[in-house]
Amino acid sequence: xxxxxxxxxxxxxxxxxxxxxxxxxxxxxxxxxxxxxxxxxxxxxxxxxxxxxxxxxxxxxxxxxxxxxxxxxxxxxxxxxxxxxxxxxxxxxxxxxxxxxxxxxxxxxxxxxxxxxxxxxxxxxxxxxxxxxxxxxxxxxxxxxxxxxxxxxxxxxxxxxxxxxxxxxxxxxxxxxxxxxxxxxxxxxxxxxxxxxxxxxxxxxxxxxxxxxxxxxxxxxxxxxxxxxxxxxxxxxxx
Length: 239
Prior knowledge:
Elements: E1 12-16, H1 20-26, H2 31-52, E2 56-63, H3 71-94, E3 97-102, H4 110-122, E4 129-137, H5 139-153, H6 159-165, E5 176-179, E6 198-201, H7 211-222, H8 232-238
């Protein structure tokens, strides 16, 4: 008999926000319109996570591979980020959200980097939800930069030491990964941290993601048995 997860609400949810471009294409709109609607979905999702008691939300906003997209789309995304920072940070702060931007900042404009730093500073005192926005991020990059830190310090390469050097060392590993858009892969996202995460794939395009879809994912998570290498019998004995 499968044992239900004792924690009905995951402490840390990670999301691959996929489907913005397809959402726009279905409506004969430019791709950037889909990304703009995606920002609305992220705001809605963050507020819903606060209401449900989720402690950490980590989202994949722009991967290190996304630079290969058409120049017009990349430029539009950079502009959208700057606009969203100016527009959304105050409301996120009022909602008790603390922002962290995770990823390689080299190559980003001075204006964007300043906006990221200001947003982190403005929300640093909040404690209802940590929102990690992975921007110019890749899971392989994260592992390499962590290993480079250890090598530079002459520190032995152990699992514990590497974990402390990862870009998300300030939060526990995700309990639940949600990917929207119907694809079923992790796409170089949190390769180290997803080792024991439960996976939930939805055909919902990210701009359509709402509280009902979030609740569906949380309900599926609550029904999973998380064994972490143990047998079901061991888990039941310690629960």
